[in-house]
Amino acid sequence: MPQIRIGTRASPLAVWQAEHVRDALYAAHPGIQVEIIRMTTSGDILLDAPLHSLGGKGLFVKEIEEALLAEHVDVAVHSMKDVPAQQPEGLEIAAIMAREDVRDAFVSNSVVHPEQLKPGARVGSSSLRRRAQLLQHYPHLQVDDLRGNVATRLRKLDEGQYEAIILAVAGLKRLQLGARISTALPVEQSLPAVGQGAVGIEIRSEDTQTRALLQALIDPATQQCVLAERSMNRILGGDCRLPVAALAEWRGQSMYLRGLVASPDGARLLRAEADGADPVVLGQTVAEQLLAQGAAAIIKEIQSQ
Ligand SMILES: NCc1[nH]cc(CCC(=O)O)c1CC(=O)O
C-alpha cells in the first residue's frame, strides 16, 4: 500500500489544508496510508515583525521545502498565495486543488462596510496589495500593520486595536469563521493575491510515484487559472512583498485574467486584462501590458526600500 508523509505548517489553516489533502488522497486511493507532519517555521515564530521586512511569505514555505528536499516528507501542502513564483531546483508544484472563494473579506465589529468607517479609522492589514487597493477607494482610512495567524488577527480586532481588518474569505470559511465576514469585497475593489484561495501540493520532481497519486487531486480549471496568475507574477519579479494582484477566471472556453500593480500608498494603480486559453501566454500578455504602463518603476521603487 502506498504511504505518503505530508509536511505542513502547524497553524490551524495550514493543518486544515493538510487534512483536506489527506482526505482527498483517502477518497481517491482507498487503503493509502497518510501521515501529517506539522512544522513550526521561523515565519510563525517571528510574528511581530512586518512580514514584508522579513523576506516575505517565502519564509513560511522555505523550511517545509527543506524537509521535502531532505526526504523527511513526501509532499508539502501550501496556500498557493504563499508560494513564490519559482520553485527551488528539484521541487515542483504537482497539483493544485479546486479553489475556495477568492475574495478578500472586510471584518469589523462596528460597521458592515468600509465606507461606513470614520476618517482616520484604523484598518489592520500587512499586505501592501490590500492596503493600496483599500486606500484607493477609501483614502480617509489609516491602514496599519497586522500580523499573526487568522485567530490572532481576529483577537487583535476584538480587543479594539483596529476598527476593521482585511483577511482572505477562503481562510475564514475553511476555519468555520465565515460568520465573522462583514462584507466580501468585490474583486473589482480588492483584486486578490496571485493564487489566493487555492491549495497546492509540492513534490520532489523525481518522485514519479507521488506525482501519479496526486493526479486525482488536480482541479484542471483552477490549476490553469493559478498558472496564468503565476506566469504574470513571474515576469513582474515574483516577489510577494510587492503589491501585485491577479485573478484568472474561466469564461467559456478561455480564461479572463485581470492583473494589478499598485504603489503602496495607493496613489498609482496600474490595471491590465486579457483573455486566452494558454495560461503562460496569457500571464505574459497581462504582465507586458502592466510593464508598458510603468510597472517596472513602481516595483523597483519598492524593492529599493
Ligand atoms: N498569508 C497568510 C495566508 N495564506 C493564505 C491565506 C488564506 C487562504 C488562501 O488564500 O488560500 C492566508 C490568510 C489571509 O490572507 O487571510
Automatic annotation (TrEMBL):
Note: The porphobilinogen subunits are added to the dipyrromethane group.
CC terms in the record's Gene Ontology section: cytoplasm
Porphobilinogen deaminase C-terminal domain mapped to chain residues: 224-291
Lineage of source species: Bacteria, Pseudomonadati, Pseudomonadota, Acidithiobacillia, Acidithiobacillales
Cofactor stoichiometry and binding remark: Binds 1 dipyrromethane group covalently.
One Gene Ontology molecular-function label: hydroxymethylbilane synthase activity
Enzyme class: transferase
Function according to Swiss-Prot or TrEMBL: Tetrapolymerization of the monopyrrole PBG into the hydroxymethylbilane pre-uroporphyrinogen in several discrete steps.
Pfam families in UniProt: Porphobil_deam, Porphobil_deamC
Keywords: Porphyrin biosynthesis, Transferase
Pathway: Porphyrin-containing compound metabolism; protoporphyrin-IX biosynthesis; coproporphyrinogen-III from 5-aminolevulinate: step 2/4
Catalysed reaction equations from the record: 4 porphobilinogen + H2O = hydroxymethylbilane + 4 NH4(+)
Record-stated family: Belongs to the HMBS family.
Ribosomal protein as UniProt keyword: no
Cofactor(s) demanded: dipyrromethane
Sites bearing S-(dipyrrolylmethanemethyl)cysteine, chain numbering: 240
EC nos: 2.5.1.61
Record PANTHER family: PORPHOBILINOGEN DEAMINASE
Domain Porphobilinogen deaminase N-terminal, chain residue ranges per copy: 4-211
The species this protein was found in: Acidithiobacillus marinus
Subunit structure: Monomer.
Cross-referenced InterPro entries: HemC (IPR000860), Porphobilin_deaminase_N (IPR022417), Porphobilinogen_deaminase_C (IPR022418), Porphobilinogen_deaminase_C_sf (IPR036803)
Name assigned to this protein: Porphobilinogen deaminase
